[in-house]
Amino acid sequence: MRPGMSRLGILGVAAIVQIAVLVLAHNLVYLARYGSRFNEALMHSGHGDGWKAAATTSVVLGGIAALVAAARLTRLSLLVRRERATARLDGPTFLRTWLRIGPALALSTVLLLTIQENLEQAALYGTSAGLGILLSPEYAGGLWIALAVGFAIGLVVALVAWRFQVLVARLRADCEAHAPARATSDPRPSVVVDRPASSILGRRSALRAPPVAASAA
Predict the structure, then answer these.
(1) b (16+ CB within 10 A) / e for 161-184
(2) N or C end: fewer C-beta atoms under 10 angstroms in the chain?
(3) How far apart are CA 143 and CA 141, in angstroms?
(4) What is the Cα–Cα distance from 127 to 130, expressed in whole angstroms?
């Protein structure tokens, strides 16, 4: 039984989550800036059919990742119930998980959104606003929106990862509790067979013939 996820699987899930968060942050920034003119603003800023296709793909991939995560958690929960495992992880473990995932996801979202918007402005106008583009009036607090989205989605991801760690820890603790005990007794000593001792005189006399006088008598 290998309840863990491979490194390649973790990287794949992380990439899907990052793309979904980037699309969500991007759309929320435009929604906060343009309101009901959201779709029109996207079209005028170069977000045509290509952007819609990318956004739809990211949503679909995010949904698939969520379904896979839910299926894995359900499977682990059933295994825990079947094995009746009882090991638990404390609350601070969840907090540490979120503090590891949330800030990283928020900062990467800000970085990717900054790069994306600069590339879009450079393609449309030939110039870009640079690293502070999300702080410009055109983006209506885009920096804070991107950070908030990253931390919020990071909270959800941390909750799933924490629950996964709890279930795996329970299963491992149960497996260790039911593992056969190792033999602790000393190995059986080898049997030593004592041979009758023989004297040096006996061995010497056995190799020589008896005296002539004794044999004649």
Answers:
(1) bbbbebbbbbbeebeeeeeeeeee
(2) C
(3) 5
(4) 9
The C-alpha angle with vertex 85 and arms to 80 and 88, in degrees rounded to 5, equals 100
Helix H or strand E encompassing 191: none
Spatial separation of the C-alpha atoms in residues 74 and 79, rounded to whole Å: 9
Tokens of 6: 């491979």
Reading the block at residue 14, the tokens are: 């992380």
Put simply, whether the predicted model's pTM sits higher than 0.85 gets the answer: no
What DSSP line would sit under 97-136, residue for residue? HHHHHHHHHHHHHHHHHHHHHHHHHHHHHS---GGGGGGS
Q: What does the block give as tokens for 185?
A: 């007794």
pLDDT tens sequence across 12-71:
888 888 888 988 888 888 888 888 787 777 777 766 666 777 777 877 877 887 787 778
Cα–Cα distance between 95 and 89 in angstroms, integer? Answer: 11
Distances from the Cα of 185 to the Cα of 44, 177, 180, angstroms: 80, 20, 15
Counting every residue written for the chain, the total comes to 217
Question: Quick one: residue 165, left, alpha or beta (phi over 0 = left, psi -120 to 50 = alpha)?
Answer: alpha
pLDDT digits (tens, 9 = 90+) for 98-132: 898 999 999 999 999 999 888 888 887 788 888 88
Dihedral, CA atoms, 164, 165, 168, 173, nearest 10 degrees? -150
d(CA 94, CA 163): 8
CA 96 to each of CA 17, 142, 164, 165, 167: distance values in angstroms, whole numbers, following the listed order: 19, 27, 14, 12, 17
Q: And the tokens for 127?
A: 């110039």
